[in-house]
Amino acid sequence: MKIKRNVYFFISFLILIASLVFSTSVGAVRIPLKSIIDVIFGGGSETDRMILLNLRFPRIIEAAFTGMGLSVAGTFFQGLLKNPMADPYVLGISSGAAFGASIAIVLGLGLFGLQFFAFAFALMTIYVVYILAKKGPYIKMQTMLLAGIAISAFMSSIISLMMLLNHDEMSQIVFWTMGGFSLISWSQIFYTVPLILIGCITLYVFSRDLNVMMTGEEIAEHLGIDTERVKKIILIVGSLITASSVSAGGIIGFVGLIVPHISRLIVGSDNRFLVPFSGIVGAAFLILADTLARTVMAPVEIPVGIITAACGGPFFIYLLVKNKNKEVK
Description:
With 329 residues, the protein is mainly α. Helix content is 80%, strand content 1%.
């Protein structure tokens, strides 16, 4: 099994590299691999440098880390809730970010204000969900999932009302809630990527603890694991990762649902291997989804959230049917 896992990791890493090269080269202007290498090492034509350094490199880097962050957060949320249909989108974090972004757009606070409000409201949302799910010193995970769905629906209704009352800003709100990386710059990368990377590394430290907790919280506590503390850390760090991702790229649903589940089928449910594998696959998946979004109908760009939803919707139905069949048996 170890040899198989190593092979799978090697293949996934090659796919990630290939997706990086492919995404960097394609677009309105095709740039060959040699020119990309020249630009990386300080050479290349002025046009190639402008396109790669100002447009494609920031966009691809943000897409890669957002895909990694959402996938890792989704892996931990699914393990914590013991539910393959759990992800940051379902827990209401993304809807909270969309609500904050909508307020910033209506108030005309600019790009920085939009991202700050998205980040702040994402954290506020998970805090409300956490309070609703908390009973004494314990957190009821199934209640948290239901609370997340309820809060998400409530936020979506308010966003719809805001769009109805603010016709001039409606297109901006709709575009942001569909997700995309067209406005990404290096300044955004400098404050989102470190948070996502540190968050993913922090969660990985608790991979073994989550493994034990998935077998039963009583067993975990007998083995000396403070389950409530681990839950809080996973929820807080996972929410920070999601808030950072969403504040830059908007609502990009289903990445944290699809990737962990497919990765689990390939490398198994041991989080020590599942977490890094999901991170690699998630990065490659979102890079390719964003590449498709900006090229399939060029010069018109499709929001990347539409691409991920087109993949995630049918997959979510598949999980529902699969779980229903299990219950029947």
